[in-house]
Task: structure prediction
Amino acid sequence: MLQLLRRVFFIGLLFGATTVLAKEADAQPTSLKAEIKAYINHHLEDAHDFTLLSYTAKDGHKVHVGIPLPVILWDNGLKIFSSSKLYHGESVAKVGDSYYKLDHGKIYRTDAEGTITFDAEHHATNVAPLDFSITKNVFSILLTALIMFFLFRGLAKSYTENGMIAKGVGRFMEPIILYVRDEIAIPNIGEKHYKRYMSYLLTLFFFIWFLNLLGLTPLGINVTGNIAITFCLALITFIITNVSGNKAYWGHIFWMPGVPTFMKIVLAPVELLGVFIKPFSLMIRLYANISAGHIVLMSLIGLIFIFKNWLGSSLSFALAFAISIIEILVALLQAYIFTVLSALYFGFAVEEHDEH
Result:
């Protein structure tokens, strides 16, 4: 009975605290909520620099602290300069005889005053040069590629020098590689064909995993939460699947054996549609899960500044810390799911069916 009363008291206390904090959050100025929302949106988007922090100086000027990246434009010739000249869209960059300004993540050619004109639908009408800049997403991809190259190169080198025995970081990598081979590739593709896809599956797994882990750092990286990136990964899986497809694979799509002719005509469009739905689900699953995790985590951090008291801020911090730990697991889980489904699609494409 005493234990039941304690539980009721705790639930009542938690409900009351949640109600008070919710009312207090609603009472906060709209400008603060809008600022937090804008910060979350900025975190999800790609940028031309790594923003570490920003603060308002005593004179009211907003100061940004970060790491600039190279801006590479093609505008009647090659233009290369540092993103620090753009200063988050607050300054006009003069490069030669041209002026450029950053607006909502895009660089436009302007005049010396930085004027950007808009049409009726609020779309910028200024000329936008071709942008080949090393943005934070591009830099993160290149960094991840280098890390993977040196890790796998070190593992291969240790095999050749130590008689197929991994040393150093390779001892950590080897069990994961064997797991991808024995638990993902072979069961889903088969022992006869799995070796053809191992290089891609390993690259896919570690690429997504490392980028997801980089997304948990304070650098504001959100590569796998960018739908353009997940689209490219899903497109590669789509191309490999359909190029690898054998006669039985395409036969089961357009003219299923053992099915009445009428049903074959009805099911063929459905099966063909499934060919495109599979990579689409890959794209959306990775993009949605990673983006949702970033939004939830950043929202909980924003609540710390909204509540401004020991109870609300402490609860928000505790929840943000718990979600961060869960996100470490999600980073690995999403890499695993994408790799498993890709291997499964490859297995469908190369599976050999008994004609009888």
Notes: Residues 1-28 have pLDDT under 50 and may be disordered. Strands lie at 49-56, 62-68, 70-74, 78-82, 93-95, 98-103, 106-110, 130-131. The chain has two domains: 55-134, 137-350. Residues 55-134 form one domain.
